[in-house]
Amino acid sequence: MSLTFATDASDAIPLFLVEASALEGWMEDQPPRVVRWLDAIGFKAALGSAVVVPNAEGQPELAVAGFGDTQGRARGRFPLAAAAAKLPKGTYKIASDLPAGDLKTEVLGWLLTGYSFDRYRSQSPAKARLICPEGLDAKAIETIATSEALTRDLINTPAADMGPEALEAAVRDLAKDHEAKVDVISGDDLLAQNLPMIHAVGRAAEQAPRLIDLRWGNAGPSVTLVGKGVCFDTGGLNLKPGASMGLMKKDMGGAATVLGLARMIMALGMRVRLRVLIPAVENSVSGNSFRPGDILSSRKGLTVEINNTDAEGRLVLADALTLADEENPDVLISMATLTGAARVAVGADLAPYYSDDPKIVSALENAASAVSDPVWRMPFWTPYESQIEPGIADLDNAPKGGFAGSITAALFLRRFVDNPSYTHFDIYGWHPGVAPARTKGGVGMGARALLEALPEILDLT
């Protein structure tokens, strides 16, 4: 797959980006033969449409991509990517003006049309290549695209090839590329190092549970990312039905997303001290599986009653978050494919997040809009705290009732963190259909928004 810009502009085809309302005026400035061609095929500059106009010799002279209208663009993302997927083979150079921010996002979308998951079957490469417009940082945009591809590849890989061992190997490969340090605590050493809930969730699997700890950078503010790495989730003894188990290779989507974000941060040389913590486990069924009714002790000292072994993600995150919080980082963020309730609330396209830090909220909302990586703030609704208190233990991992499941999960995690900057993302990590710049399958959510927001959050600008 090609997630880079073309570099040879000698035969580049000019590409005009035209809104439907501006089409008539744009055509007034074109030669009559161009107008006749566009009229003959009925080109209306509809959103995502694209056409190549030949010259007298039958070779491409120019191309036009339709940008529709404002209302249409509000209903989707990456209109240039939609057009790029329909353009024939060739190298193109944008010949129209767009606001700089919009242009950066649009050309990133173009690059992402080149993504395909080809580990198990060869895929057709993208036909249309793009010259990076002047004034944009080509390497930075390519870095974001290839980091998103890392996230997608990790999620798309089935659990047979992406268990805790393989996820650890992926982290080590990433660390090697960027001169980062990795430490791993695995198996019974988790108990010795006081990470009991990570051990409890993963002990039934053939591959040992582990906590993966990556560090990079020695100057600047501290940023800690914690990603849920449940490489497959059977539901444990509260076994999922088959239909619900089908996508559980993506239950390490939080880990995949923080690794993509970490790659962006490191490759772009952001002046931060970065730490990434990934509790990597499989929630399997065996004679030593943890059970409904068990009461687990946590690193923080809080006890947790297990009322559903399928609510395991919050357990492994709790120990990892406690460890992260002990260093009191300037920013602490967790990302996890945590609850189906979040999907019911906002669907597959939005990344719901929880934060009580007004600076983070403001920066994140502005950044998400600027880079077309939508997020939606959810409430740490303190009145629901009683729902996660079972009485027999400090906390309940799966409160009864079915209401506000994403909120109660977030409140559960917050009990293990004292840091006021704590921000939690309850992402889906999967795109259920084909859309501009996104194939069906694994997808990063919230990472680009966080990358854009971090300089403002950390006063790096």
From TrEMBL:
PROSITE patterns: CYTOSOL_AP
Gene Ontology CC, one term: cytoplasm
Top-rank EC class of the record's enzyme: hydrolase
Keywords: Aminopeptidase, Hydrolase, Manganese, Protease
UniProt EC number: 3.4.11.1
Residue span, Cytosol aminopeptidase domain: 308-315
GO annotation, biological process: proteolysis
Record-linked InterPro entries: Leucine_aapep/pepB, Macro_dom-like, Peptidase_M17_C, Peptidase_M17_N_1
Alphabetized Pfam families for the sequence: Peptidase_M17, Peptidase_M17_N_1
One term of GO molecular function: metalloaminopeptidase activity
Similarity field: Belongs to the peptidase M17 family.
Name of the protein in question: Cytosol aminopeptidase
Organism listed in the record: Shimia thalassica
